[in-house]
Amino acid sequence: MRLVYFAWVRERIGRTDEEVDLPAAVVTIADLVSWLRERGEEYAYAFENDGIVRAAMDHVHVGPDTPVGNAREIAFFPPMTGG
Amino acid sequence: MRLVYFAWVRERIGRTDEEVDLPAAVVTIADLVSWLRERGEEYAYAFENDGIVRAAMDHVHVGPDTPVGNAREIAFFPPMTGG
Amino acid sequence: MRPTIRIQAEPFDSARETDALVAGRPDIGAVVAFTGFCRDEGGRLSALELEHYSGMAEAELARIVETAAARWPLSGATIIHRFGLIRPGEPIVLVLTASCHRREAFEAADFLMDYLKTRAPFWKREHLVDGTLGPWVEAAAKDEDAAGRWPIGP
Amino acid sequence: MRPTIRIQAEPFDSARETDALVAGRPDIGAVVAFTGFCRDEGGRLSALELEHYSGMAEAELARIVETAAARWPLSGATIIHRFGLIRPGEPIVLVLTASCHRREAFEAADFLMDYLKTRAPFWKREHLVDGTLGPWVEAAAKDEDAAGRWPIGP
Known about the structure:
Chain A is of the alpha+beta class. Chain A has a single domain (2-77), classed as Roll (Ubiquitin-like (UB roll)), CATH 3.10.20.30. Chain A contains 3 helices and 5 strands. In chain A, a hairpin with a 2-residue loop joins strand 3 (54-57) and strand 4 (60-62). Chain C is an alpha+beta fold. Chain C has helices at 14-22, 56-71, 102-119, 141-147, and strands at 4-8, 30-37, 45-52, 74-82, 84-86, 91-99, 122-128, 133-136. In chain C, strands 1-4-6-2 form a 4-stranded mixed sheet, with helices on both faces. In chain C, helix 2 (56-71) runs antiparallel to helix 3 and helix 3 (102-119) packs across helix 4 (141-147). Chain C is globular, with a radius of gyration of 16 Å. The relative contact order of chain C is 0.24.
């Protein structure tokens, strides 16, 4: 599964994207965030406050309870500031 | 005093403008309308329904109770349909 | 804020008017432009003829803009209204509002159009595709209602 | 209604986009154009840097327009959003809505901007006049509130 990061989430993690193999225990977006936090302090820093970072699955906004299923690409990013 | 007419008020009266000397009894815009109605059937036709034709005094919208005072120009016209 | 108000027979260029409004003003974050076009009313019209009360039209538009500027913090405003014969697809009126933030620009443009429709001395007459002169356009009750949406009127 | 949605580094020409929207459509009576500009924030900023999520940005803007088109009878809609480095005074975003009557065009443009601000994957970062990189712009609570004004959301 491909993970992509944007804006300060990207900067904190220090990469734009990566391929990951998720353990079976990761069912939802929230599980994925918990799993990422354990991967290193850069991830813990990016996700330090619950409810700030947003997620999208295959280009569609999703909430923390959404099952990751067979998503090809999951994105994490701060609240949007376009326009 | 100069009177000016627009759109179908102008067409019904058959002129764009005219100079008039008002009798002392004409105090308000409503008085002026009543006086005009007596001047001929073209005026009676233009003002046949009360509350339709609008008035402006020296380029400012006014209501029927406004005193005509020393106005230089009084305009009569249908409800506006610009924009 | 010195508004631009013009009444003219010629078409206008909304991009050029917007450029003029924002030039040298890096505090402006939002511009709303409303353009009103002549419709063909399902193919019935060959043109609209716009009559106006010269002198009062400029004065009334200036008063309408003044009322908007007292209500919203506008950085600039432009109103251009055409007169004469206007063909379907051609623009009739342009209202531009500029502000730091979008909410004010949207509300002020909306307000200006509502008040312009009911207070600016312009009258439309239909010219029909069969070559005859159609009726004067009747004022829409919905325009009066729209102007009534704004608690403080001019 | 086939909307135009573009994400590009280059500036845009709002008059040309409006012409394209209304060409051959004499049923259109109203076009509302919203243009968002880069502000200098009192002289503090040298530029804004716009990052976006390519692919999702286009898809999300298409969904936002679809939601608007289901709610208002739109004859056309255009959204152009720039990315990259944008200087104060330069345009960032253009939203155009076309309809028979002005009310629908105004409401749809207002709605599109509110939803674009809170849902389209774009992020702004400040570049300061002293040459340093400033912070990422924080999402404004008022933008979330604004999007909440519309009872039916996407």
